[in-house]
Design a protein that fits this description.
Number of helices of chain B: 5
Strand order of the largest sheet of chain B: 3-4-2-5
Largest sheet of chain B: 4 strands, antiparallel
Structural class of chain A: alpha+beta
CATH superfamily of the largest domain in chain A: Lrp/AsnC effector binding domain/regulation of amino acid metabolism (RAM) domain
Number of domains of chain A: 2
Helix content of chain B: 25-40%
Largest interface: A-B, 76 and 74 residues
Order of helices and strands of chain B: HHHEEHEEHE
Radius of gyration of chain B: 20 Å
Shape of chain B: elongated
Number of domains of chain B: 2
Largest sheet of chain A: 4 strands, antiparallel
Number of strands of chain B: 5
CATH topology of the largest domain in chain A: Alpha-Beta Plaits
CATH topology of the largest domain in chain B: Alpha-Beta Plaits
Oligomer: heterodimer
CATH architecture of the largest domain in chain B: 2-Layer Sandwich
Shape of chain A: elongated
Strand content of chain B: 25-35%
Order of helices and strands of chain A: HHHEEHEEHE
Number of strands of chain A: 5
CATH class of the largest domain in chain A: Alpha Beta
Radius of gyration of chain A: 20 Å
């Protein structure tokens, strides 16, 4: 089986942002004590295991014009939820879609994050999404203010893994 | 942003080359040099458009749990509570929203106890009327990508 402790140790190195320099994987390789090609193979292995979802540029949505967002929470019959989730996932402007637990007073079980460049587009997209699936009820929760958006990092201070 | 910058961002977010000299590979695709590619990325990063090029880790796969939490908070206390949440590293996203539950955040935690302690602490804060936990039962999409 996989060695979780080793994975955490490797990922605490590989989670760092890539430097913009000609051989950016060198920084990881040095810390891992392997060469650059081995580092790249390690990243690929984690991707194939689903431990690393992707290795890519992360763009601030609001800085490319997507300033209008809403979380839309649907109440969908349990047995129809997977089908609805699949349908929602196909919309390019939906970045996140989950089935979540619900409560009697909060019956919504299917959540989608919808992004748009203005309010009109947001309304139009919400309507498009509403028309695409069958649901019992829906709550549209537009984003009013972003207080925090950060990338979690494996804490490294207690394990002697600080760079 | 010009066309070249947009093409660069789309390439970097959709198809980042895992090779020893990735910026050379990207440069070739766009007809620019490795140096030009690096300079452009630095500029986009300094401008706050490109957050980072990095591994997006599936925290659940290495023993962490993630959860969405919705709070019902008195409107006059929203900013103050959000400020408190700001300092907690395990809270990665925090938004105020229109609706019955008006303050939402996502939390990454390594033990249920750790999560429960935080929630208990939040319950005691002034203006907090309700806290609901929404763990994901199934992930249909985690995209993080929007066309530039």
């Amino acid at each position: 089986m996989f060695d979780k402790e080793k994975d955490v140790k490797n990922l605490s190195v590989l989670q760092k942002p890539l430097r913009f320099e000609p051989r950016p994987f060198e920084q990881f390789a040095k810390k891992l004590g392997i060469d650059e090609l081995q580092t790249i193979e390690l990243i690929k292995e984690y991707i194939s295991r689903g431990v690393i979802r992707r290795f890519a540029g992360i763009i601030k949505h609001d800085r490319i014009g997507y300033r209008f967002n809403a979380m839309v929470a649907f109440q969908v019959e349990s047995e129809k939820c997977d089908d609805a989730g699949e349908v929602l996932s196909k919309f390019p402007y939906i970045t996140h879609c989950y089935r979540r637990s619900s409560y009697p007073e909060w019956p919504y079980n299917l959540y989608a994050m919808i992004h748009a460049r203005d309010n009109e587009e947001l309304d139009q997209r919400i309507n498009e999404v509403k028309g695409a699936i069958s649901f019992v009820s829906v709550a549209v929760l537009p984003t009013l203010q972003e207080f925090k958006k950060s990338l979690f990092q494996i804490p490294t201070d207690d394990k002697g893994l600080i760079e | 942003m010009n066309k070249l910058e947009k093409d660069l961002l789309n390439l970097v977010q959709n198809d980042f080359p895992l090779s020893v000299r990735p910026f050379e590979v990207i440069g070739k695709k766009l007809g620019i040099s490795e140096d030009q590619c690096i300079e452009m990325l630095k500029k986009l990063s300094d401008a706050g458009i490109l957050r980072a090029v990095r591994a997006v880790i599936n925290w659940n796969s290495i023993g962490y749990s993630t959860i969405l939490i919705g709070m019902k908070v008195q409107p006059q206390n929203v900013a103050e509570i959000a400020k408190e949440l700001q300092h907690i590293d395990e809270i990665t996203h925090n938004y105020s929203r229109a609706g019955e539950l008006n303050l939402w955040f996502t939390l990454i935690y390594s033990s249920v106890n750790q999560k429960d302690i935080l929630i208990e602490r939040l319950r005691k804060m002034q203006g907090v009327m309700d806290i609901k936990e929404f763990p994901a039962e199934k992930v249909y999409k985690i995209g993080l990508k929007l066309d530039v």
